[in-house]
Structures
1.
Amino acid sequence: MAGFTKLSLTLLALVAFAGNSVLCRWALAEYQMDPARFTLLRLVSGAMVLALLVFFTRRKQIAVQQLRPETQASLSWWGALWLVTYALAFAYAYVGIATGVGALVLFTAVQFSMLAISAWRGERYSVVEILGVACALSGFVYLVWPQLAAPVSVVSLLAMVLAGAAWGAYSTLGRGSPTPLLDTRIHFYRAVLLASPVLFIIEWQQQWSLPAVVLALTSGALTSAVGYAIWFKVLPHLRVTTAAVGQLSVPIIAALGGILFVNEPIESRFVIASAVILLSIFVVIKSRSNKRQTK
């Protein structure tokens, strides 16, 4: 893959990841869409687009073999459970926190959960890595401390931490899959089934706002399904460190999106916390990469 193409696809994927935060907050804050409705529309539209992507990109004999029922049966339902947990918690979290703050909390929780899973599996961390995690945690506490004064913000923060932990578990579960796009499509199918009970908690008396529906469908079809497809295409051509460090930009892109589309200001606390958290996590990622290269 040519360097310019690789860079362009990587940037598109990262913008798509950040776009989920912007679109969700936009639909909830600007148009008062209920989180359950947003989540269901996101998952359904994502599943439909992923089905089309799999169909058009895997029409050869290999695809026919991969689409057999036993392929679906071999996948654990845990992936779908983590996915629907992430999607629901993500939407409910954005009821009470700003776009940039939510994206930073989500990203931090994802990284912490993946580090915790690795530690549980027996991986040991160096002193530098432990100090990096401690610094990132201190930046996280500094970021959320003012939010703890408002009950709505506390619930939203806890929901976003849950979303990050679920996404971290989902990412760890799918790491190394030979058919990530196909697996993601199956997980989305199953996530729709698992999310179907939200039909009973959707506020049906609320009118359907066309702009909000468009935002939810865009989140599922474009920034989720297409974003994941682009990421899976470019990921094999990226170094592990490059891919991980590239994701450090997602909270910053989301914060800029919040400014442009949701009219949310960036506070100095967010800037300071972002610098501390992202730099600390970069140190951890770099240290882990160096350690693997020396083995």
2.
Amino acid sequence: MSITITSFDGADRASVDEAYRIGSAANDADLPDFPPFCRRRFDALFHTPMPGTLSLWALARLDGVPAGYLQLDLPQLDNTDNATAELQVHPQLRRRGVGRALHEYGLRLLREHGRKRVVAMAVSALPDGPPRSVAGDAFAAATGAQPALTEVRRRLDVGEIDRAALRAALAEAQPRAEGYHSVCWQGSTPQEYVADIAYLDGRLLMDAPMGDVQWEPEQVDAERIRGNERALDARGRRRYHLGMRHEASGRLVAWTLLDLGATVDWHAFQQITIVDPAHRGHRLGLIAKAENLHHLLTHEPAVRVIDTFNAASNSYMVAINEQLGFRPVDSWTDWQLTL
């Protein structure tokens, strides 16, 4: 067997097509409850990347047949010692050395770019959850990477939401939130709130549990928020935001986001939820998430399930998600390799 690896970029449409087909097959095999691998999202990774990110791509062929790809994202504005990786091998061509060859190729690229560590995720099964392959964790461990953070994916079945219990929880929370009111929007952030959103977004990696992942807070400003929005627009992601506005200061002090991809209308992700530490204790997180859930479902009535990821140690956010009806599906480990 002969394994060859070549770097490629968005101008090489044949390689992009081959990588997409590999990713699609891997998604269907490894995460059968996920939406199909989105072609619009994948293409946008090449032509409209997230601001401040340099992406390096490599395609592996086994005896001339496209067999796997590697994506390395190298932050340029902060975390310049770090990188993240996604490595996919076609399900029919695994256990033939393709992953190891891509890994070794990636290490050379990372060292050429002066990176000191790389982080990648692998999924595994929970004791009572659906089966998941053990190959990702086994491969990461074999490379010498260390498990740095455990996350759990939870899923909300919209048809099973206990709406009476949710209304009761909101009614109980509202008196604690006197002096705050909610504002919602779709897509890009209104100009009057963009500085507040940049501040909250920049706090995320300070406030969220990071385990042993060595990742510094990102430097987020209004320009970076607008760049993120352009990248998400290019991916076709429909976004539903809700912020909690502090009436005395006029600032948004909490923010949550739900979004859908371009491929299907039945699936959404609960993305960021963050409350400014100076305004915690007012049940703003619960109110924001519950009201934004209503915001989403009003405009996207076809949504049947919503997935969210939380660090297993993030007890506060996990408790809110459980109250909303999210239930564990599988476990995800952030593996960190020091070069």
3.
Amino acid sequence: MPIHLTNPERRRFLKIAGGAIGLSSSVSRAADNADADPSGEQKSKQINNDLVVVLNDTHIGERHPPDSAVPSNLRLIVEKLTQQTSKPACVLINGDLALKDGQPGDYEHFSRLAQPLRDAEIETHLTLGNHDNREMFYEVLKNQRTVNSPLKSLHVSVVKTRHANFFLLDSLKETMVTQGTVGSQQMNWLAKTLDEHAEKPAIIVAHHNPRLGGDPLHFPGGLIDSQKLWDVLTKRRHVKAYIHGHIHDRGFAKHRGIHIINTLATSYVADPNTSTTGWTSIRLDGTGAALTTHTTDEGHPWNGIEKRLHWSNT
């Protein structure tokens, strides 16, 4: 079942969308209503319906000291997001939420760190990675579970925004197994749901990288059924991009007309000389998206760098 980190009063904005759980258009209406209060004064926290924020690889552990880098990075990012004068349409946290093998205390610690997002009424959606444990994840965050899941055994959902629909996949093959998979059941759901939501550009979000010629890293720990997935995606012209984490690095590629976006890890990197930690903001419009890299080290040369992606019509 999908889990969405929302306050109870905000959960009315979740509805069934073509058999999948997603944010309804009520979010846009809420943003319109937030522009001004009855006195005519501007409210401090408007929703920017064109902005989506992506985090991944938080790797929160139960026993991390409060001042160690991993929880501190997530705490810093959450603080920055909640202090902005406008809030994003949603935040996507794309897998490997837990440190190693998805212990209950990991998810409890993660939930505490993410609590300010709920307090600020910032819609937050989660996916799973190879360091997560699906059963423990559901057990600890059971109060955030939604009903009528499209796939009861997998964590999938559709998140609707003004300019694009985000399809959140569950690429967790098995806890502590580096490779990921989509699988035939999820592949069939994705094809059907993409066809039902062809009115806007589609962006696929999964923790694992595709193992394709268009990915310059071709990281072998990625999706074992990448080619089958790409066959499904490329048959549908409204699919424009695929967002992943897993590699703990940053990069942009393209394969068979679909952008591949490798987003920064929040927690740590293998080699700080070649990469860094941070998060990604995506500003959408009718023709594409502008992706901005934000680094936890504000002096890093990647901080504030923008990459513009244009949606192809073919």
